[in-house]
Amino acid sequence: MGSRQQATMAYVQEAMNQLLTTTFKEAPEFLSATQEGLDSSVEVIASMGLTGSLDASLAVGVSRKGANLLVSKMLGSDPGEFNQDTVDGVGELVNMFAGIIKTKFEDSGCVFILSLPVVVTGTVPMSIQRLVKSEGVVLSARIFGIILDIFFFYSRPSMGLARLSDVISKGLSSKDATEALMKMLAQKPKI
């Protein structure tokens, strides 16, 4: 694993640790590939996109039973049936995770715009695949006996999105931002 990938792994692991410790008042156990590793019973995947300094996707996969237990603990209620509240809760967990990731990367000079969370559920196990031209990290964490699979994939952004995030991060007025965006769009991309 290269130094950039090790640094990314550290950011992702720190972010997940912060999320789970803050939300559930319990630290997760991070699993190595030689331990139980990726959970083969992932039936719920929540994901978000980040664009700006990098184009990135992050996702968290968990079983339906695990999702139900996590959301019930988050809400301080008894686990009930898997329903829309569970789906919304898992979406909110990945949203908080993305916010922590964004903050950690911004501390090192990266700028991101977040998408809305997307949650996919199924009754058969699902998996997540990395895009061909992307790098990434994959890890698993256990909390309350539940295994969470955590994915963070990234690549260099298209020039337009990188420049757009620069415009947004400078806090320009809407008129100045519009002018900067128009100039940016008028330029030919460098290939």
Which helices and strands occur, and which strands form pairs?
Blueprint: H1 3-24, E1 29-31, E2 44-52, E3 55-62, H2 64-75, H3 84-106, E4 112-114, E5 118-121, E6 135-143, E7 146-155, H4 159-169, H5 174-186
Antiparallel strand pairs: 1-6, 2-3, 2-4, 2-5, 3-7, 6-7
Helix pairs in contact: 1-3, 2-3, 4-5
Describe the structure.
- This protein is an alpha+beta fold.
- Helix content is about 40%, strand content about 25%.
- It folds into two domains: about 5-155, CheC-like (Chemotaxis protein chec, 3-Layer(aba) Sandwich); about 160-190, no CATH class.
- Strands 1, 2, 3, 4, 5, 6 and 7 form a seven-stranded antiparallel beta sheet that branches.
- A hairpin with a 2-residue loop joins strand 6 and strand 7.
- Helix 1 (about 5-25) crosses helix 3 (about 85-105), helix 2 packs across helix 3 (about 85-105) and helix 4 packs antiparallel against helix 5.
- The mean pLDDT is about 80.
Notable characteristics:
191 residues, 7 strands, Chemotaxis protein chec, alpha+beta, 5 helices, seven-stranded antiparallel beta sheet
Short description:
The chain has five helices and seven strands.
User: Could you give me the name of the CATH homologous superfamily of the largest domain?
Assistant: CheC-like
For the record, give the distance between the C-alpha atoms at the N and C termini, rounded to a whole number: 28 Å
Q: Quick one: overall form? A: globular
Structural class: alpha+beta
The major β-sheet equals: 7 strands, antiparallel
Which spans of ≥5 residues are poorly predicted at pLDDT below 50? none
Total number of helices? 5
CATH architecture term of the largest domain: 3-Layer(aba) Sandwich
Order of helices and strands: HEEEHHEEEEHH
Overall pLDDT level: 81
**Rounded Rg:** 18 Å
Give the proportion of residues in helices: 40-55%
Kindly estimate the percentage of residues that lie in beta strands according to DSSP: 15-25%
Can you tell me the number of structural domains?
A: 2
CATH top-level class of the largest domain? Alpha Beta
CATH topology category name of the largest domain: Chemotaxis protein chec
